[in-house]
Design goal:
Shape: globular
Number of strands: 8
CATH class: Alpha Beta
Family: Belongs to the transaldolase family. Type 3B subfamily.
Order of helices and strands: EHEHHEHEHEHEHHEHEHH
Function: Transaldolase is important for the balance of metabolites in the pentose-phosphate pathway.
Catalytic activity: D-sedoheptulose 7-phosphate + D-glyceraldehyde 3-phosphate = D-erythrose 4-phosphate + beta-D-fructose 6-phosphate
Bound molecules: erythose-4-phosphate
Strand order of the largest sheet: 1-2-3-4-5-6-7-8
Active site: 83
Keywords: Cytoplasm, Pentose shunt, Schiff base, Transferase
Strand content: 15-25%
């Protein structure tokens, strides 16, 4: 399973990249706002850190507007993936842009049927939001299982990005289901590394090492 980092904070991206954990990056308007930086400037800097797919989201709501924004975004770097919302206009934009060879990440996907539509429209990536579904009492990961089955049934090439990840359990289940990618916030990435028994083990080894005659 590929790991993307879900942030527009370049320090977080650099740290995770140094750990060898970053295959790509996803951003969204909220994450860019949190970075406090100019959109184009921050996306451009991310392309200098990570050599992999970097999602940048359009904000227009109509297909022509999305297409115009997308054509500008892809000029930044060949690794740019354009994030388009899962709406009728978003699907139109996806079809047009995919036909032009632009890699599209259809975002804000909350049902397996929406994922099927995104795949049919030619999305390179599909982002179902598991955490936001869990927040409203639905099982987000159950949807991932169904999306995996549907895409495999018909041999769609679209890759599933498990998004809106809140905990290590989401990452574990994404791996068990066979999702292609998990996009992980920096805090959760740090949680993945940690295990109390690892810390205890290190302490014991170091204590015993002191007893070795020197
Ligand atoms: C996906 O690409 C989104 O950026 C992200 O995963 C949304 O997560 P949130 O629900 O924590 O905002």
């Amino acid at each position: 399973m590929k790991f993307f980092i879900d942030t527009a904070d370049v320090d977080e991206i650099r740290t995770a990249h140094e750990m060898g954990l970053v295959d790509g990056v996803t951003t969204n308007p909220s994450l860019v706002a949190k970075s406090g930086r100019d959109f184009k400037e921050v996306i451009t800097e991310i392309t200098t850190i990570v050599d992999g797919p970097i999602s940048a989201e359009v904000v227009a709501l109509d297909a022509p507007g999305m297409i115009d924004e997308a054509r500008e975004l892809v000029k930044i770097h060949p690794n740019i993936v354009v994030k388009v919302p899962m709406t009728a206009e978003g699907l139109k934009a996806t079809r047009t842009l995919a036909d032009e060879g632009v890699n599209i990440n259809v975002t804000l996907v909350f049902s397996p049927i929406q994922a099927l539509l995104a795949a049919k429209a030619g999305a390179a990536y599909i982002s179902p939001f598991v955490g936001r579904l869990d927040d409203v009492g639905h099982d987000g990961m159950e949807g991932i299982e169904q999306i995996r089955t549907i895409l495999d049934n018909y041999g769609f090439a679209s890759e599933i990005i498990v998004a809106s990840v809140r905990s290590p359990l989401h990452v574990l289940n994404a791996g068990l289901i066979g999702a292609d990618i998990c996009t992980i916030p920096f805090g959760v990435l740090q949680q993945l590394v940690k295990h109390p028994l690892t810390d205890v083990g290190i302490e014991r080894f170091l204590a015993d090492w002191e007893k070795v005659p020197k």
